[in-house]
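Hi R.,

Here's the chain you asked about this morning:
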Amino acid sequence: RRSKAAAISSREHPSAGRFGHGGGGGHGIADVVRRPRRGGRRPARAVPVPSSWRAVLVILAGAALSAGPGDASAGDTYLRAGVAAERLEQAVFMDRDCASTAPAALYGCGRGGDGAPLRSVGRFGTAGAVELGIGRVASPAVRLEAVAEYRPRVAFEGRANFLEPGRRQSVAADLSSLSAMAAVYVDLPGLGAPKVGPFSPFVGVGAGVARIRVGETRMRFPRTTTVVPGGARTGAAWMVTAGVSMALGDRTTLDVAWRYTDLGEVRTGRGEGRVIWRDGSRDPLLLDLAPTRAKLRSRGLRLSLRHAF
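And the predicted structure, written out as tokens:
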């Protein structure tokens, strides 16, 4: 049984293919016959924790337990503020449920013009971030910190694969993220490791939550533009980091670090999407769309200052 959106799409513009893309071939909600889902709602899945993250956490927890009472000479509480330049990894947007009919899946369960599953592939590019943390020096080796981080704007640019390679099918969207994590840092000289000149190496790990908000996604095809509603999601996030610190005075320290961050999933919203014929030859076609998702991961350099008080 075809979805209501599929019937409307075919009736209004039978030669347009899926969402008026002009590709034919019958992809997704416009031309795919789907069976109703059985067995009710899908059970929720636990958020996986990578084994490498668990190993680092165990090591840092052991260091914290063995380090003994703190004796930091510059004070045991500090504020930290910093900036970051990050390179986000390649992102692949796909349906959460490619067989959904009410609301309708954006991509569907078929394969695109390149032979791969229907999807959009691209990059978020380089992003800037600011962070603010408050921490406590628990011992000469261990620091505990609560940190918030904000990425004001990250731009996604990619391509869908509804049509044959080489035809116009660009995809663009903007997002922002706000995360909060609890982190543990180990200053290695506190465990007996040597300094490197004026620099003290450290490692760290953190976990918390991130809220990611994405605006409308615009998919431009030869004749039409498909607009996908934006959305927001809060989910688990984690990071690992390594760097060096250098004392700038009795109470001020400069940190330079590399960090890998997994912010979880970006999700477009469930709601009203639309197909717009750019030449104005037809009225916009409204569609009730299901969410899509992609993973948001980054790695990059950070520069921050700690001030103890």
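The chain is about 10% helix and 50% strand.

Let me know if you need anything else.
M.
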